[in-house]
């Protein structure tokens, strides 16, 4: 959604009007916060329906009555998913700011979406050996870490220090992604209609 919004606003020149009232960093940060708010609202609605559904289904299937999530699991999920959501939103905003057409943006965004699916592809290996080399490696890579950590917590006790390192790295990468998205957006406004490369964005001078 954020990717589509940024590309469309560039194409119809809406950005040029909005940018007269706010700075690029304010606009990009606001878009990311808004996208997160929409996502969390959807998540809350799904959780409410899930809880209600489990209570109703528990009346017919007794096994579901014992289903519950520990408070620790919920806390870790929130600590991991929030910076992950920011990271993904910033990456999509940066892609949208760097591309000139929606088709190109969707192709590039697909490449960044694939790593999130890797833990599902190797889920059997993670389940069989949740503390193995593969599971640990995926736990420390920002794009695969959220799903991998939660999978491992289902089958083993993940040390607190690993969770802390994971959350800290996600927060750092999320901040860097916002910074990069802001630079890409600012440079994209200056070079309207031109596709930007990763190197061009990094080498661009940062101006207030």
Write a compact overview of the structure shown.
With 208 residues, the protein is mostly helical. Helix content is 77%, strand content 0%.
List strands and helices in order, with pairings.
Layout: H1 2-11, H2 14-18, H3 24-58, H4 71-98, H5 102-121, H6 123-128, H7 133-140, H8 145-155, H9 160-190, H10 198-203
Category by helix and strand content = mainly alpha
Largest sheet: none
Low-confidence blocks of residues = none
- The helix/strand series, from N terminus to C terminus, equals HHHHHHHHHH
Proportion of β residues? under 5%
Could you walk me through the main structural features you see in this protein, from its secondary elements to its overall organization?
- With 208 residues, the protein is mostly helical.
- It contains 10 helices and no strands.
- The protein has helices at 2-11, 14-18, 24-58, 71-98, 102-121, 123-128, 133-140, 145-155, 160-190, 198-203.
- Helix 3 packs antiparallel against helix 4 (71-98), helix 3 (24-58) crosses helix 9 and helix 4 (71-98) packs antiparallel against helix 5 (102-121).
- The longest helix has 35 residues, at 24-58.
- It is globular.
- The mean pLDDT is 79.
Features:
208 residues, mainly alpha, single chain
């Amino acid at each position: 959604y954020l990717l589509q919004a940024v590309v469309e606003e560039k194409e119809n020149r809406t950005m040029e009007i909005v940018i007269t009232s706010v700075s690029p960093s304010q606009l990009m940060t606001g878009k990311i916060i808004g996208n997160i708010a929409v996502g969390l609202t959807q998540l809350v609605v799904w959780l409410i329906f899930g809880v209600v559904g489990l209570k109703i289904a528990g009346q017919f299937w007794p096994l579901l009555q014992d289903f519950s999530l520990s408070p620790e699991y919920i806390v870790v999920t929130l600590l991991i998913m929030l910076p992950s959501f920011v990271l993904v939103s910033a990456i999509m905003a940066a892609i949208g700011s760097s591309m000139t057409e929606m088709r190109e943006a969707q192709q590039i965004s697909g490449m960044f979406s694939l790593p999130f699916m890797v833990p599902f592809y190797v889920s059997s290996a993670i389940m069989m050996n949740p503390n193995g080399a593969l599971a640990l490696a995926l736990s420390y890579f920002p794009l695969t870490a959220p799903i991998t950590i939660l999978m491992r917590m289902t089958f083993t006790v993940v040390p607190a220090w690993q969770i802390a390192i994971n959350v800290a790295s996600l927060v750092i990468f999320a901040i860097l992604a916002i910074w990069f998205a802001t630079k890409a957006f600012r440079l994209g406004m200056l070079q309207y209609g031109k596709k930007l490369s990763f190197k061009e964005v990094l080498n661009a001078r940062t101006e207030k």
